[in-house]
Amino acid sequence: MSKQKKKIHYAWWVLLGIALMVGLARGGIMTSGGLFLSPVTEELGIGMGSLSLYFSISAIVTMIFLPFAGKLMAKFNIRVILIVGVILQTGSFAMFGLMNSVWGWYLFCIPMAMGSVFVCQMAGPILINNWFKKHNGLAMGIMVASGGLFGAILQPMAGNLISSAGWRYTYIFLGLLVMIIVIPIVILTIRMSPQQKGLQALGSEEVTSNTSATETAVAKGVKASVAIKSSSFFALLIFFFCITAISSFGQYVAPFAMNIGYDVSFAGSAMGGWQIGTLVGALAFGVLSDKIGAKNTAIFAMILGLVPVIILITVPNNKVMFTVAICIYGFVIASVGTLGPLLTTALFGNKEYAQIYSTAVMGLAVAAMVALPIYGFIAQSTGSYTAILYAIAVMMLINIVSVTYAFIGKKKLEKAGHWN
């Protein structure tokens, strides 16, 4: 009995696999795109706004593909789905290194977006909800922190590689590197549910000791058909939209740095600082959510987010302050991956979580679709990023209101008898 208690629950091995997969795919592929914008536009003579449109196309594909992704993950073997997703995402990213026209980015961002839906967005929250009844917030935090950890390593490396070997080689190297590492990890660690290993989810034993078997067998929460028509869901969509638009600025940190006189190597180092902030923030937000709740943690994140925006508006030419601001900014945007799933669970429960979350994250896709090209065209037309930073500050204030309103809506759902 004592030996069984000391044995590591398989949920932690699943989390390790998720963390490595998401960390490498997000930190090495998804968040590194901004490092390539200036070098590619300069060499190929493409406008910043025109090239950044591929982010918008990716977002459109993501929005269209999200509902199908949830169904595919429920129907087919999760490992097969994720291997295909990894190949689509990393292979398409590597193909950017062979392109000579902006149409190449427009074309290959489509399969890249489809793959990233599985690998970076859907798999982690669904698997964690399946495997963790206890330490859910911590698990979400570790998953998001992994992106910061690997990003802190891969972003400066990518910046130096672009500087020394060129953007083409860097695209191909990063894409193949992530593919070769992640596929074996998926095969060895990922399982869809505890039942596939003859286990219960981590923490199920504690729940069972405090509740009846009937109560534990039924997940509590709001039905998806009711949830998506509620004021809470509308407020959650606004939060997802704004926080994604806020975090999308990460793709422009490198161009912003170079716009005010820094070189690509410093920009890569600054992005490394961003990823370190993400690493610390993800863990902090996971723990905070378990301690003070998702609502209070989200409000705290948005208030803190105003600090780096003010620094970047007032003293961007100071290297130390610039780096500090980017680190804090990375800390704050860690709330996207951590608080999104946790807010969804806090507002609507686990009864039909996958359906509700897969619909809510369409707000992320719409935001990326709108914000990224708008940022690009603003920078292209004004030659400055100041207006973008003011808009980000406004969106942080909107999010404080949205989160507060969402939880007022939750009380209405409870009074109406929908939360059961």
The appropriate CATH architecture is Up-down Bundle
Question: What oligomeric state best describes the polypeptide chains here?
Answer: single chain
Structural class, by secondary structure, is mainly alpha
Q: How many strand elements?
A: 0
Main sheet characteristics: none
Distance between the termini: 36 Å
Short description:
This protein is an all-alpha fold and 420 residues long. The chain is 82% helix and 0% strand. The chain crosses the membrane at residues 51-68, 80-99, 105-128, 137-157, 169-190, 233-254, 266-285, 297-315, 321-344, 356-375, 387-408.
What order do the helices and strands come in, and which of them pair?
Blueprint: H1 2-6, H2 10-28, H3 33-44, H4 48-75, H5 78-95, H6 102-131, H7 136-165, H8 167-189, H9 204-210, H10 213-217, H11 224-227, H12 231-247, H13 253-259, H14 264-292, H15 294-314, H16 319-333, H17 335-348, H18 353-360, H19 362-382, H20 386-415
Helix pairs in contact: 2-6, 2-7, 2-8, 3-13, 4-6, 4-19, 5-6, 5-8, 6-7, 7-8, 7-14, 7-17, 12-17, 12-19, 12-20, 13-14, 14-15, 14-16, 14-17, 15-16, 15-17, 15-20, 17-18
Question: What does this molecule look like?
Answer:
This protein has helices at residues 2-6, 10-28, 33-44, 48-75, 78-95, 102-131, 136-165, 167-189, 204-210, 213-217, 224-227, 231-247, 253-259, 264-292, 294-314, 319-333, 335-348, 353-360, 362-382, 386-415. By secondary structure, the protein is an all-alpha fold. It has a single domain, classed as MFS general substrate transporter like domains (Growth Hormone, Chain: A, Up-down Bundle). The longest helix has 30 residues, at 102-131. The model is unreliable at 211-217 (pLDDT under 50). It is a multi-pass membrane protein. This is Sugar phosphate permease. It is found in: Cell membrane.
